[in-house]
Design a protein that fits this description.
By secondary structure, the chain is an alpha+beta fold. The protein has 4 domains: 210 residues, no CATH class; 130 residues, no CATH class; 219 residues, no CATH class; 178 residues, no CATH class. Helix content is 60%, strand content 16%. The chain has 27 helices and 23 strands. Strands 12, 14, 15, 16, 17, 18, 19, 20, 22 and 23 form a 10-stranded mixed β-sheet that branches. It is elongated. The two termini are 28 Å apart.
């Protein structure tokens, strides 16, 4: 066996003597790597589903011809074909609901024109395509949906809730299976009937290969139609979904950062325990390079084991996270269906490199320390602690510099969203670098106070022991502080956001009763309730006021935008949370002029302010609207444009999606609801009655689903921190076994040893909990005022969370006390003679 092999074998023999320390380190790496990989896999799976859903809806089109929100006459398509434009395909689209409550997206196509876009829908050799054209009421569905319904796709009947009532359709398996089970295909005539758009189209898909084709087609379009690149329609949703995924990734990296402190802790303790071995090895001729190499190889083995096990655990965890991520993307951006995680070799290779690289970087300082050649008095624990105190002063200065650098990046707004995260991590790093020096000063002060108490020496011993072991207790405190601060920061963000959303809902839900469509509304004016309903119900003696609203996508000079078409109550501006533009006569201006209100998110994303102009395609053609004000709104991450419906249509709105009713004085709400239910039962269009409380409950349920994964990541981060402080306390107490043996020999009873260990753990936990409060509040402020604003443009009031701060103290103390149980039990049962003879 070579000398290097003997050296490695002798060095790794410590693994059999202290297996718990290695297991805890590996466990920390496993959890951290698993979280990072799981979040990446869940994000990528949701992204692929997002892309597939959009591709299935858009097909191979490069551009789309769009018109007014209610659609445009199908004769425009015929005219374009007669002019020689062949690669065009008419589309009618919109969501409908099954009787089971499941929402599907109906795509109406013309199989005769679909060959350039969706070959599966143009395969006339397939019997389902022929039946789609020849049998009315036939719909092609993905085979996986039929499998879920335990059918064979041989002509089963399904009920669809449409604007004209419930319709029976025949479902057939599509010739080519799509990836999204919610996209159903029908002949365009069938779709027009089901979506109540007979004679009208939602869009025309176009495949334009020549560079000059887009300009030529745009010139051939009649007034009121616009040519929009497909990528432009999806860009906003993609950008916002990406911002959500970046937030999750950054949260997962906190667990990795804590694992770095855990590896550093373990390797430092490993070197300290074997200082005598290192001295003997140097005496027999082992070089500094060999010593450094053996420490790094040990760290590499820890990282390799932890990373491989973490990769397996990450795939399992990703399966649990992907559904939550997909649900959030569906709630806010675009409906996606994800059923499985698809591990990518590149992602697995990246996380392996990340885990191994983290292990090696974290072990560099301990390896360098082990390789140093010291003279008399230059080695041993005392010398190491002297160097550690000098290093703490250096880290204090460096931490202040890094903290100021992060503040400068945030103040200057460099790098947008990614720059915000860079600023956040710089400020976190700067604060953590300052902690060892602050811990040393705090312990020194506590030691002075404890020395004044003569009745019990245990507090003085506990404090001075921790102060002398700063190089060991410091990293443990830093790891726990980071985890607790992350918990506080997330609590500040979620708590402030939740209160802001709740207050906003209370301000905007001003009606007593709401009537909403029972079928989902299409983005481009699909399922709507008749405009005549508002006039009819407004004439009832039980009703004092009626308001209506609808959302729609529209073409503008800023790309595709979301409109909120409103016919409000008379006092609606008193309840709208305007942040800019509240002036006298605003309602008259919005009613009589081409003026709009925009949300904070829209203003931030489009860089618009009060007085700017926005050109929007309306049923009467493109018109320029002036921004008259900016208001707070949390209903759409991309932001919206609010327009009075009569100004947009320049007349009576053709329909609406929701209607709010204010009851006349003295009319019981239940009586009004009962009359509405009876009246709606007689109408052909499906609608339902609900109250503001039910809408608020559903909105808050969506909010809670959005942040459920964030809470899960916070819990996992705390688990990693607990493993870190347990590892540190075990090593700290075991390393001072001789000191405890001396105390036992001089009369300290086993229960005194237990109290001493728990006292030290409580001191570390309390310090970490207190230090986490300013860091956590700072993180929360950064998440709200910098990162959240860059990602979504939302503003909210920062609330100081009283209960989470108290929970933080309890978590810090609890984690430290739980981590003290094992070392306290072991030291109380420790044989004294071996511990006194040889220092561990």
């Amino acid at each position: 066996m070579t000398g290097n092999a003997l050296l490695l074998r002798a060095w790794l023999r410590d693994w059999t003597r202290h297996p718990l320390q290695r297991l805890l380190t590996i466990l920390g790496v496993v959890i951290a790597v698993a979280v990072v990989l799981a979040v990446d896999l869940a994000n990528q799976s949701a992204q692929r589903a997002f892309d597939r859903s959009m591709i299935e809806v858009a097909g191979a089109a490069t551009h789309q011809v769009l018109g007014p929100v209610e659609g445009f006459p199908e004769g425009h398509y015929r005219d374009l074909r007669l002019q020689g434009w062949r690669d065009l395909a008419p589309i009618v689209e919109g969501p409908l609901r099954l009787e089971s409550g499941e929402t599907i997206y109906l795509l109406g196509i013309d199989p005769l024109a679909e060959a350039p876009f969706r070959e599966g829908a143009a395969s006339f050799g397939a019997a389902p395509i022929q039946r789609l054209l020849t049998e009315p009421g036939t719909v092609l569905v993905p085979p996986q949906w039929l499998d879920l319904q335990s059918t064979q796709g041989g002509g089963d009947r399904v009920s669809l809730i449409t604007p004209a009532g419930t319709r029976e359709v025949t479902v057939l398996a599509a010739p080519e299976a799509g990836d999204d089970a919610r996209v159903w295909i029908a002949d365009i005539a069938t779709a027009q009937l089901f979506l109540d758009r007979v004679g009208r189209l939602d869009r025309i898909d176009a495949r334009l290969d020549r560079p000059d084709a887009p300009a030529a087609l745009e010139a051939a379009l009649p007034a009121g139609l616009d040519l929009v690149p497909v990528a432009a329609r999806d860009a906003a949703a993609r950008e916002l979904a990406q911002a959500f995924r970046i937030n999750l990734t950054a949260m997962s990296l906190l667990a990795l950062l804590i694992a770095a402190f855990l590896i550093y802790n373990t390797q430092t303790f490993s070197v300290l325990r074997r200082l005598q071995v290192l001295g003997d090895l140097r005496l027999i001729g082992v070089s500094r390079q060999q010593v450094m190499a053996v420490v790094l190889i040990e760290a590499l083995l820890v990282g390799l084991l932890g990373t491989l096990l973490g990769a397996v655990a990450g795939v399992v965890l990703a399966q649990a996270l992907v559904e939550q991520v997909a649900l959030t993307v569906s709630d806010h951006f675009f409906a996606v269906a994800v059923t499985a995680v698809e591990p990518r070799p590149l992602a697995l290779a990246a996380v392996v490199a990340l885990g191994l690289g983290l292990s090696l970087v974290s072990a560099l300082a301990p390896a360098w320390e082990a390789a140093q050649e010291r003279g008399v008095g230059g080695s041993g624990r005392a010398a190491l602690e002297r160097r550690g105190r000098r290093l703490a002063r250096f880290l204090l200065v460096a931490g202040i510099g890094v903290l100021l650098l992060g503040a400068a990046v945030a103040a200057l707004g460099l790098g947008a969203l990614v720059g915000g995260f860079v600023a956040l991590f710089l400020m976190i790093t700067g604060f953590l670098l300052m902690l060892p020096w602050v811990l040393a000063v705090g312990l020194r002060g506590l030691g002075g106070l404890a020395s004044e108490r003569q009745e019990s020496p245990l507090p003085r011993i506990a404090v001075r022991s921790l102060e002398r072991g700063l190089s060991r207790s410091g990293p443990a405190v830093v790891a726990l502080t980071l985890a607790l601060a992350a918990a506080i920061g997330v609590s500040v963000l979620v708590g402030s956001f939740r209160v802001s959303v709740s207050d906003w809902l209370g301000q905007t839900l001003t009606s007593d009763v709401y009537v909403v469509s029972a079928s989902p509304a299409s983005a481009r004016g699909g399922t709507r309730l008749p405009g005549a309903w508002a006039r009819t119900i407004a004439a009832w003696p039980e009703v004092a006021s009626v308001s209506t609203g609808a959302t729609a996508d529209a073409v503008s000079d800023r790309g595709m935008i979301k409109l909120f078409l409103l016919d409000p109550h008379a006092d609606w501006l008193d309840h709208l949370p305007l942040v800019r533009g509240r002036v006298a006569g605003l309602d008259d201006r919005l009613r009589g002029d081409d003026a709009v209100l925009i949300t904070e998110g829209f203003a931030a994303h489009q860089e618009l302010g009060v007085g700017d102009r926005l050109e929007i395609a309306t049923p009467s053609g493109r018109r320029a609207f002036e921004v008259a004000g900016i208001y707070r709104d949390y209903s759409n991450p991309g932001g919206m444009v609010l327009i009075r419906a009569e100004r947009f249509y320049q007349g009576e709105p053709p329909g609406f999606v929701s209607m709010g009713l204010i009851a006349a004085p003295g009319v019981p709400l239940q009586a009004l609801e009962d009359r509405l239910d009876r009246w709606l039962a007689e109408q052909p269009e499906p609608a339902m009655v609900t109250r503001p409380g039910a809408i608020e409950a559903e909105s808050m349920a969506i909010f809670d689903r959005t942040f459920a994964i964030t809470h899960l990541l916070r819990v996992i981060t705390l688990v990693v921190a607990f493993v870190a402080i347990l590892s540190a306390l075990v090593a700290l107490q075991m390393e001072r076994a001789r000191e405890y043996a001396v105390l036992r020999s001089t009369g300290l009873l086993p229960d005194g040893v237990v109290r001493l260990v728990f006292l030290q753990g409580a001191l570390l936990g309390l310090f970490a909990a207190v230090a986490a409060i300013p860091l956590g509040l700072g993180m929360g402020w950064m998440l709200i005022e910098v990162i959240n604003r860059e990602a979504f443009g939302w503003r909210m009031d920062v609330l100081l969370p009283g209960l989470p701060l108290a929970e933080n103290l309890a978590l810090g103390l609890g984690a430290a006390l739980l981590a003290s149980i094992y070392p306290a039990w072991r030291l109380a049962r420790m044989p004294l003679v071996p511990a006194l003879r040889v220092e561990a």
